[in-house]
């Protein structure tokens, strides 16, 4: 239990379409992350699943049952809010017990369930305190405790870690992943932080202006983005996009002209595009971390205007001709690359992505497993 | 360079006595000596202006009546006594009943106002419904009329309802004129309670009423107490005109009308009038003092963020 389907969900506020015709299946026990820039509709989508917002159109189906008109409790859903939303006048115990008190559960059951939840979340010693006396991380755990005590089938998290500092966020990421394993429940998690998405998710849904840009396992999105939006959104610093022209389509890939260099990128050209491709403008995508000094089979000269030396790696930003885009490169370790001095950087066509003029990716031929992505573990069938 | 120890003492002497910061010697809380003198001077002038009538009233209540009209006027009572506090009870036998009536009218009016205003303010704070701005505006407009303007229509209304010369004739208009400002005051307070708490309670399966009772009411308590105090004071203060117009029975009269009895045909018995005023205010002071102990700030700390 805990299988969720969204069927052509649409949400409009006035005339503004926030969520556009979204269809999605979330498998039982899956950790699904909705990620996207602010205003992409991810929180609205979550609130519709929760039952806090009506859908304008479309169906929400949980375990084969349409739940559009059911209250959150009847959907078997619990939610953890970004702002925690703890009841400040109640002790931690009463906060966690609140859903059970609403149900009218017997006192003994409440006590045992709250204590069990407190143990999972390491809050045993805090049960008598008020939320105002707790740290941010503890408050967040109380909010999670209030969600798990009712044993819902589906958990919703609305940017739960965004109020925590960086170190605590890293700890809570690990704790949430552990909690997911322990409970085995379906979790849907909204964030704008791609690190949270990449580290915790079984699958990620990237949303862009109310549309699903791509759904896939974290490394699948990293290695095989289906469009320039996902390519630019996943990965930090973001992927460099360079204008190129297609010269030839062969059985093994597409050859493009990049500043006079002929680069052969191993992608599949769809049959429908094949005849149009030669001579067409394309976009070459290469991630900053794949740029090297020497090696590789393509090269370009850039003049970094800003260099950042982080110790662990060295990041350079160089303006590209045309002015709008900045070319970024990440070099491992501490490299003595001065700013404002032209340098030759290189990259390998094996690491490159190609996008057509509409921003759609030409699928890379490389096997996901060869690129270091684990086999997709989400293909569990749900009977 | 300034000597560090001198510097420390200088900081200490200039600590802002009004700072609510944990560290009262914080930079922005430091004042120079003349600023502190000016602040205290301002407070003194203000307080003197506010309290001088009370002081004078109290001193008058201690003086024998003959001394009040002596020239030159002596501010401090000579051979003052609390005699007026005893004789006033004899002059106005109903005085205890007047005090009781005042308290009763103010208390019942306050309870009625709270019973109506708390749910209304919650509705205005949390729900948006058709005509809400209009209703709020109407409440504001109503509170711009003082009861005195509407005395004649109110009189006719009371007569039609057959409640002239009862307590209700003073309680109902009293409560009605206090409701608008109470709604505005409490609505503002309730809007500060994070709406996420409603959503969280809804997610946990709580009904609107359960949420209102278990989450909103406890959090709105300081606001409700402020409204209760304001309403009680208002109801206590505005009784005179309603009582004089809508009631002619001595046994239902409130305190302000009772004080009027000290104004004789020939003379005003000032010392007993002042004594009676202080005695009459005392119960209300006690109630307000008791209520304000429940005014605790920071109740919503830890709700969000």
From TrEMBL, chain A:
InterPro entries reported in the protein's UniProt record: AAA+_ATPase, ABC_transporter-like_ATP-bd, ABC_transporter-like_CS, ABC_transpr_MalK-like, ABC_transpr_MalK/UgpC-like, Mo/tungstate-bd_C_term_dom, NA-bd_OB-fold, OB_MalK-like
Record Pfam families: ABC_tran, OB_MalK
SMART domains for this protein: AAA
Keyword annotations from UniProtKB, A to Z: ATP-binding, Cell inner membrane, Cell membrane, Membrane, Nucleotide-binding, Transport
GO cellular component, one term: maltose transport complex
Protein's recorded name: sn-glycerol-3-phosphate ABC transporter ATP-binding protein UgpC
GO MF annotation, one: ATP binding
TM region positions: none
The encoding gene: ugpC
Protein family: Belongs to the ABC transporter superfamily.
NCBIfam families hit by this protein: PRK11650.1
Source organism, top-level taxon: Bacteria
